[in-house]
Amino acid sequence: MADATAPFRIKGETGDWEVVVGLEVHAQITATASKLFSGAATAFGAEPNTQVSLVDAAMPGMLPVPNRECIRQAVRTGMALEAKINRWSRFDRKNYFYADLPQGYQISQLFHPLVGEGEVEILLDEKDDASAKSIGIERIHVEQDAGKLMHDQHPTMSYVDLNRAGVALMEIVSRPDMRSPAEAGAYLRKLRAILRYVGSCDGNMEEGSMRADVNVSVRKPGDEFGTRTETKNVNSVRFVMQVIEYEARRQVELIEEGGTVAQETRLFDPDRGTTRTLRSKEDAHDYRYFPDPDLLPLELDDAFIEECRSSLPELPDAKRKRYEALGVTPYNAGVLTAEVETARWFDALLDANAQPAQAANWVVAELFGALNRLGKGIEESPVSPQQAGGLLGLVADGTISGTIAKQVLEIMLETGEGAAEIVEKRGLKQTSDTGAIDSEIDKILAANADKVAEYQSGKQQLFGFFVGQTMKATQGKANPQVVNERLRAKLG
């Protein structure tokens, strides 16, 4: 198995090459059901052009009005990324003509973004806190999305759907701090988790509410940065990693053959796992940016900043550290905090008085396994956190054994009944009756006199055989601790 923390290198004809990666993540602000500068709806999957206001369609005389909730969610996101919040920011016009952009320009933020520098800490190995790495955030700016052209609806014409026009996006721009596909994947997963904890974006990459532009260049380790390409609108973590792998190898081969990397925008083909040229890269001056004359600068006051900060939930890193302090292993803590739904479910389980380390092991090993078999996520679990707490409580107080608990969980998943009810109704209580246990042990020892002799002559590993036979004879209901004690006494 490859070491996740080892440097990632491309093997070329002239030696090793290093990849340099930066990501520009476009995250739709899904916390509000309206657009950045209009009250039009933003629901996914609506009929084309049914969610378009006069502002979105750029009708003459229509003026944009900033959506306060969009600004609030972008500020909260910046705070979660430990970024600088700029109390004064401004909207700019980015001018370009395209059929799905009715205004002929996009309202964005180039010179004075809402959020400045921050960072995201990733773990390259979930079991090793020493594998942590900090990825810098350069800025977060707020901008409106464009519409969508559809080329497959008519033999000679393209149709335009403006439902997405004006949707609020946060563009989260990283520094070029990533050095492998694995680091970029870890960063994107962590960023998505933070957005979902904050509630500003649902992180649904399949529906396009989160997508990444992938900047890739190569260099000999320690050299200056090379020329980068930008692959647009990549919509899964796996595809982002494929883009980096393919682009890095393509650029190394190109340079070693005597060519030069062109600074350009590329598109990813997920079917072939390759990228292709879309257009040569424009510079900022090509867009003729200037302050939007229809919008006043944004000025954030102390009360607004404080409300944003106080509304933040416990974030993944803080939650993970809290779980570890409760005795949960670093690996389990990482699994339990990776998705906000899992963390909320586990918190509810702890509120039901479950013992943290035992509960974490049970969720990761038993519950996840059962839900996988059912094809369900934890938010669809037929067993509630309170019911799970009841089951674990029965194990903790010795009412049932761990083996019986597995049977009870299966019945709970099928019937929705509580653990105590199932145990009572089906007579599954663990027995610590030494008389009954002694009786079964005596029968097993009598039937296996040869193994008893082997054990007593030094073959200690046979002890497990006697335990297993006793548990089988008592249908798993015997208290394992009592079984161990009575067997040791009888075997001498």
From TrEMBL:
Reaction(s) catalysed (UniProt annotation): L-aspartyl-tRNA(Asn) + L-glutamine + ATP + H2O = L-asparaginyl-tRNA(Asn) + L-glutamate + ADP + phosphate + 2 H(+); L-glutamyl-tRNA(Gln) + L-glutamine + ATP + H2O = L-glutaminyl-tRNA(Gln) + L-glutamate + ADP + phosphate + H(+)
UniProt subunit comment: Heterotrimer of A, B and C subunits.
Role played: Allows the formation of correctly charged Asn-tRNA(Asn) or Gln-tRNA(Gln) through the transamidation of misacylated Asp-tRNA(Asn) or Glu-tRNA(Gln) in organisms which lack either or both of asparaginyl-tRNA or glutaminyl-tRNA synthetases. The reaction takes place in the presence of glutamine and ATP through an activated phospho-Asp-tRNA(Asn) or phospho-Glu-tRNA(Gln).
Classification lineage: Bacteria, Pseudomonadati, Pseudomonadota, Alphaproteobacteria, Sphingomonadales
NCBIfam families for this protein: gatB, PRK05477.1-2, PRK05477.1-4, PRK05477.1-5
Stated family: Belongs to the GatB/GatE family. GatB subfamily.
Enzyme Commission designation: 6.3.5.-
Protein name in UniProt: Aspartyl/glutamyl-tRNA(Asn/Gln) amidotransferase subunit B
Gene3D superfamilies named among the record's database cross-references: 1.10.10.410, GatB domain, N-terminal subdomain
Keyword line: ATP-binding, Ligase, Nucleotide-binding, Protein biosynthesis
Residue ranges occupied by any Asn/Gln amidotransferase domain in the UniProt entry: 344-491
SUPFAM superfamilies for this protein: GatB/YqeY motif, Glutamine synthetase/guanido kinase
A Pfam family that the UniProt record links to this protein: GatB_N
